[in-house]
Amino acid sequence: MPPDQPDETWIDVDDSHQEDYPSDSHSFTTSIASSVQDYSFENGRRYHAYREGEYPFPNDEAEQDRLDMVHYIFRMALQGKLYQAPLRGPVRRILDLGTGTGIWAIESADEMPQARVLGNDLSPIQPTWFAADAAALLESLYFIIDDIEAPWPYSPAEAFDFIHQRNMVGSIADWNGLFAQAHQHLVPGGYYEIQEFRVDFQSQARRGPTLPESSSIARWQRSLQEASSRFGKPINVVHTLADTLRRNAFVDVTEEVIKIPIGAWARDPKLKRLGVLMQGHAIDSVEPLTMALFTRVLGWSEAECRALIAEVQAEFSASPERQQLFVELHVIHGRTPCSGV
């Protein structure tokens, strides 16, 4: 079957939306061990302790606020939805890979009360309490600390109906290995969904989409790709992941590319609002994506990093309307073959 071509569309935003898994002893023990909160601090940012150094981005409160904001951006871009996969039949078990603050897992458990939702991450930054009226949610939602590139501990009886991944580019060394494990731990006909930005900011105002090589954003992007590649976890890979799913025996793989404006230059009022949020997110993303990779991998000093960060943030602040900057969101999903298919 020939590879499907991605559907490339501008979004029509609907912003009406405002807003038993822990059986593995290793993961469960890790999740409650005090050592996972023995964080490291570097250049004014806080980083995870479990498997220290594997994830090159911070986990402090500022980063958690950024991740929650990008969750809201994703929901706006997806018409208020949490996912696009056409899930079949009763969904009983869901796995949220790299759950971060846990906001996607929490909202999924709330919207699908029949399902049990597990979120895993290297950092224990998920909520540890809920309101008294959310007792039922507690029965269907779990968070554990685990490394998704290590062997998965779940038994065949714990197979998932749906596995979700978001904001994981730059943190995975072996995508084939990840997708192979996911395939093994999905029920027949179970879905895997990817939601990722292509970290390649572009300009609609130019004859071609590429930014001038002299722009601070373009220079930063090139250095970010170099650093993440040398780190062994390239950040700009989402355009390859649909084919990687196919190579790992997923079928009915589809890909949609959604162009999201940066700044208030779009004519459509909803796109304009989304663009303003995306501009703020782009500005806030520069420092956390830069500091560890550039200092640890490229050997930059903190002062050199902060000088470039300031230039890039200033360019994101000043030029989106003139250059009509945009970024692409890729939404990819595929399923395992059904029994006998």
UniProtKB/TrEMBL annotation:
Pfam family, one: Methyltransf_23
Compositionally skewed regions (Acidic residues) per UniProt: 1-13
Chain residue ranges for the region called Disordered: 1-29
One GO term (biological process): methylation
GO MF term list: methyltransferase activity
Lineage, uppermost ranks: Eukaryota, Fungi, Dikarya, Ascomycota, Pezizomycotina
Name of the molecule in the record: S-adenosyl-L-methionine-dependent methyltransferase
Keyword Transcription: no
